[in-house]
Structure formats: structure tokens, C-alpha cells
Batch of 2 targets.
Target 1
Amino acid sequence: LRLKEQLSKAEEARATAEEAAADWDCRWEAAAAYMRAQVDAADESRCAAEAVAAAAVEKQGRAQEEAARRVVSLDQELCKTKEALQDVGGAREAQAHEVRRLEEKLADAEAARGESDRA
């Protein structure tokens, strides 16, 4: 009888231990599932951040290309403006030369008329 009681107690203890082990298994599985979800969420966040960074790099590249094109365009415009100023300067010099030539001719004509009036 005493042996049966000890056996019964041992079986109860084994059953209790198995229940406790099953409970710990469930808790560990729940904790592991939670951690896997956290890892997945972190991975998704990392992927999203990488996508945003890639888009920013691409946008910056396009902005730099546009700025380079604008610099080239402004440089060409500056060269054309300088050429136009040189042309204007040359035209002014030619005009001033022509005015001086005409003034000389006018002076010669007036002098000739003055001599003609005296004669």
C-alpha cells in the first residue's frame, strides 16, 4: 500500500512536471514568435529606410545633373553676351571713326566753301 502511494505521488509529480514543461514550451514558443515578429518588423523598417535613401540619392543625382546643365547653359549665354558686347564695342568704334571722317569732310567742305566765297 505504501508503495502504491509513493507510485501515485510520483505519477502526480511527473504529470505536474510534464504540465509545467508544456507550459514553459508554450511560453518559449510565444516569446520566440514575438521575437521573430520583431525581427521581421525591423527588417521591413530597414528595407523601407534603404528605399528612401536610394530615392534621395537618385533625386540628388538628378539635381546635380540639372545644376551642371544649368551651369553649361549659363556659361554659353555668358560667352554669347561677351561676343555681343565685343560686337557692340567694335560697331561703336566704327561709328565713331565714320563720324570723325564725316566731320573732317564737312570741315573740308566748309573750308572749300569759305575759300570759294572769298574768291
Target 2
Amino acid sequence: TIQQGLLRRQKNIELLGKQISLHPGVGVFVTMNPGYAGRSNLPDNLKSLFRSVAMVVPDRKLIAQVMLFSQGIVSAEVLSGKVVDLFSKCEKRMSNQKHYDFGLRALKTLLVSA
């Protein structure tokens, strides 16, 4: 419905029984992480409506450093490296169990509470 409205240059569309104004610059984005536990793949009919974009692994040390500096921690440069190293060592050495989470969300949770 949104895509058809954009193609027809409509000012309003009907979505779920309601009239909604449609901005010509609107975009719809879907973030998928199919390898993540509990996630499912997007059906092919919906997948064909979106363009794939490759993602890169985030720089955890830089993210940790910025988060620590933003909280006023002056030794953030050294501390961020140590925390990220600890997380990566735990991830490599501990057994693969669901209750162990050493991903970016867990790292951010730890840094916010620092």
C-alpha cells in the first residue's frame, strides 16, 4: 500500500482502515538477523520488496570508548580495550550456552552501569 501510494504520488493512503497522509520521502527499512536465536526469515514475497545491504561487524572498542568518555570516565581509552578484551575472551573460552551473552547489547548494558 505504501509503495503503491508512492508510485502514484498520492498524498494520502488507506492503511488498516485509516486514512494516513503519505510523505514522498518516506522509507521502510527491515533489519534482519537470521542467525540470531528465536528469529525467523522474511517470506520471499516480502523479501522481494526490499534491497539487501551488507553490514560489517561494529568496532566494539570504539563504541565502548565513546560510551565511557560520554559518562566522564577519563581513562576510557585504556579501560575500553580491557573490557572488550575481557568480553571476547569470555566468549571464546566459555561453553556455548544460551544464558551466556557477550554480544554488543551486553557490553553496552555493562558500560551504562559503569
